Amino acid sequence: MKTTLLLFLFTLALASPGCAQEPTYQLSSHILDITKGQPAANVKISLSKQDASGAWATIEEKTTDANGRIPDFLKNAKGVDNKGIYKLTYFTAPYFKSLGEDSFYPFIEVVFEIKDGNHYHVPITLSPYGYSTYRGN
């Protein structure tokens, strides 16, 4: 009985959210293709940060998942301050080419500033000849 109870408590402790926390991220993005009314999958997005001289340094490049999302830019870590000016570059030409469609924008750059430790979500709605962006949640 004691062994079963100890095994149960040990298993419960391992399953507890307090023991093994999932990493969190400060920045995410999402692309919705409004001509299809569906997420834009397999679009490469590059994240860059501007330094004090105004030059851009690429931090990460990722590809949107089947839901058109990248949920994991800028991992939160103790003692890390992500404040600064960033740029997301959405490489849209290959996406539209894969659909057999012509497009006006070969890529889209969205520049924004992170001013605090809050989560930032930068979605875009996309069509071959236009786009819109906003700060989501």
Characterization of the model:
By secondary structure, the chain is α+β, with helices and mostly antiparallel strands. The chain has a single domain (24-133), classed as Sandwich (Immunoglobulin-like), CATH 2.60.40.180. The protein contains two helices and nine strands, in the order αββββββαβββ. The chain has helices at 2-15, 92-98; strands at residues 25-33, 38-39, 44-50, 56-63, 69-75, 84-90, 108-114, 120-127, 130-133. The strands form two sheets. Strands 1, 2, 5, 8 and 9 form a five-stranded mixed β-sheet that branches. It has a four-stranded antiparallel β-sheet with strand order 4-3-6-7, with no helix packed on it. Strand 3 and strand 4 form a beta hairpin.
Give a quick summary of the entry.
This protein is of the alpha+beta class and 137 residues long. The chain has helices spanning 2-15, 92-98, and strands at residues 25-33, 38-39, 44-50, 56-63, 69-75, 84-90, 108-114, 120-127, 130-133. Helices cover 15% and strands 43% of the residues.
What is CATH's topology name?
A: Immunoglobulin-like
CATH level-four homologous superfamily name: Transthyretin/hydroxyisourate hydrolase domain
Q: State the order of secondary-structure elements, H for helix, E for strand.
A: HEEEEEEHEEE
Q: Determine the strand fraction and express it as a percent band.
A: 35-45%
The total beta strand count reads 9
Report the sheet with the most strands, covering strand number, pairing sense and barrel closure. Answer: 5 strands, mixed
Question: Which value, in Å, is the CA radius of gyration?
Answer: 20 Å
How many helices in DSSP terms? 2
Question: Which structural class fits the helix and strand makeup?
Answer: alpha+beta
CATH architecture: Sandwich
Question: Termini, distance in Å?
Answer: 49 Å
Outline type: globular
Q: What's the multimeric state?
A: single chain
- Mean pLDDT equals 89
CATH class: Mainly Beta
* Helix fraction by DSSP (H/I, runs of at least 4): 10-25%
Regions with pLDDT < 50 over 5+ consecutive residues?
8-17
Count of spatially separate domains: 1
